[in-house]
Amino acid sequence: MRIVVTGKSGQVVTALIERGPAAGAEILPIGRPELDLADPENAFELLAALAPDVIVSAAAYTAVDKAESEAELAYAVNARGPEGIAAAAARLNVPVIHISTDYVFDGSKTSPWLEDDKVAPLGVYGASKLAGEAAVLASGARAVILRTAWVYAPFGANFARTMLRLAENRDEVGVVADQIGAPTSALDIADAILKVARNLADHKDDPKLEGIFHLGASGPDASWADFAEAVFSGLAERGGKRVHVKRIGTVDYPTPAQRPHYSRLSTEKLARVHAVTLPDWRDALSVILDRLVGPASMRRDD
Ligand SMILES: NC(=O)C1=CN([C@@H]2O[C@H](COP(=O)(O)OP(=O)(O)OC[C@H]3O[C@@H](n4cnc5c(N)ncnc54)[C@H](OP(=O)(O)O)[C@@H]3O)[C@@H](O)[C@H]2O)C=CC1
Ligand SMILES: Cc1cn([C@H]2C[C@H](O)[C@@H](COP(=O)(O)OP(=O)(O)O[C@H]3O[C@@H](C)C(=O)[C@@H](O)[C@H]3O)O2)c(=O)[nH]c1=O
Q: Which segments constitute the RmlD-like substrate binding domain (predicted)?
């Protein structure tokens, strides 16, 4: 199975490159400069030459706060980019898996968001990603939208690595405790994408496999403060320093973009239709901390 992916240097694609071979997939990443999503005119020629079985559209403008002041660029990359990719996929008759976000929701629910719940993004990033979803769904390509959330990995820019960096010279970090979701490992996302890709490649005439699906870790709801506490206790278990999380409110941590208070995604549809369920986020974090900090068995107090 040949899978062409956009977003060569991103967390999800780096994970796909790592996990692809074990799943029998050849991952062909494309990134800048060969494809600038803000101007995807050459997408068809580029994709056609690579002859993919499946296309994964994972590149995005992901700077949530900066998007508020760079709306034009965010829409170009997150909406017109995927539109160009999906149009090419339709012409090539190749299915496309497009990665989207929990930030398409306003966070007003108190139970996990379903695929057909009302979308109402609070910021430019979420709105531009929503426009990307719409463009992909309207393209005529066989399409799966995978909305995921709170992505972190042993590589790339993410909240867990930010916490570990802050731990280097801080004993306490203030983190919001009133935004709830599920941290999701890019390694697990990659495994899920590979299974969905296999299903699409193997069952060409099954429209039930297409549409919007939510993809997130199992385990209890978590706030960013819970996630930070889990990172720091994992650090201490591995012989690192102890760092305290000061649990604060969103009002105490003002940011240019508003974020949803509750963005946990219901993953039942993905489990039912594609037979994909992700591990508990606490186990997934342990796997990633083993790589970032060292295995827990190396801890000093053993
Ligand atoms: N990170 C998260 O917490 C979440 C992410 N998602 C979605 O998952 C997907 C993957 O996210 P993630 O792996 O974290 O992404 P990253 O932020 O790690 O990487 C984004 C990638 O997109 C590329 N990119 C940005 N602008 C352009 C452009 N104009 N042309 C071509 N490539 C471009 C970047 O390339 P370069 O390095 O050259 O800038 C980079 O490779 C995205 O669609 C994102 O919206 C969904 C939920 C949560
Ligand atoms: C670094 C830091 C952040 N925070 C807060 C800010 C914010 O409300 C929350 C999350 O911080 P970040 O800005 O790192 O995360 P953010 O960029 O909002 O993460 C989002 O990225 C996009 C791409 C997505 O699609 C989302 O699913 C989500 O993962 O934690 C603290 O309270 N203390 C801190 O020290």
A: 1-292
